[in-house]
Amino acid sequence: MTDWNAIATTVEAITTEVGAKLLQDFGQVQASEKADGSLVTRSDQWADNRLREAIAQAFPDHGILSEEGDQTFPDREWCWIIDPLDGTTNYTRGLPLWSISLGLLYQGVPVFGLIDVPPLRQTFQGVWIGASGLPGTSRARLNHQPIQTTPDDPSSNHFFNLCARSTAVMKQPFPCKIRMLGSASYNLLMVAAGVAVGGVEATPKIWDIAAVWAIVHAAGGTWVALDNQPVFPLQPGENYRDRSYPTLVVSRAELVDRFQPLVGFLANKA
User: Fold this and answer.
1) DSSP string covering 216-236
2) Is 103 helix (H, G, I), strand (E, B) or coil?
3) Cis peptide before 246 (omega within 30 of 0)
4) Residues 8 and 134 reside in one and the same domain
5) What's the pTM?
6) Rounded distance, CA 84 to CA 50, Å?
7) Which of 118, 139, 251, 253 could cross-link with 222 by S-S, CB 3.0 to 4.6 Å?
8) Are residues 111 and 184 in the same domain?
9) What residues make up the domain containing 248?
10) 2 forms bridges with which residues in the sheet?
């Protein structure tokens, strides 16, 4: 039987250790630019190495795909996808919105996610059984307390989160207050936690979304692939380094028709 509590406890201990080290260097490291234009620091690289080492030790039969390591999906029934530091620009500039993200996939589909936000002392986790046939109950939690998406209708007093590549939506009438957080996972987590009614990411990579996918679904949210291409299951042997996943997340399915026409053009930025 799959022991979700044991998995969560093990992974939380790993991210707590890594987060403590990252906090020591927070706002004090220099970043360099990678080929895709994103930033990387020695902290990203150290965290990626340590997370892969710890996951391999705790789950020796599982595969691993990580942002700073091997980005080819392995031919394993279970695989972890690691984002060692989501929000690197925030991290280097001293803005306390960055996270460590670990998603567990079963047969290529996320079933568990844990995202630790060390500077805010927030740990999100979710189990999403979906159609996997695995035992257990879907659940989403923040600091071990249940969370769920908001049932509210959008208004000028509700939040909708953007990414840096989606600011063009502000050129048209928009039904909510706009926010930009600088971390793909935290953007979408705010929908899962009921803080925002929706969020959009124009060019997230698989390590940006694998963990939050499970949490959003477990919290009752709706995920829309803006390019109409299925996100999961991932395919063994495929390299996911350059693939982006333009994404809309809303608090409930009824809001898809409200927001998708406003953000659908972002699929062309992927």
Assistant:
1) HHHTT-EEEETTS----S--T
2) strand
3) no
4) yes
5) 0.95
6) 9
7) 253
8) no
9) 159-269
10) none
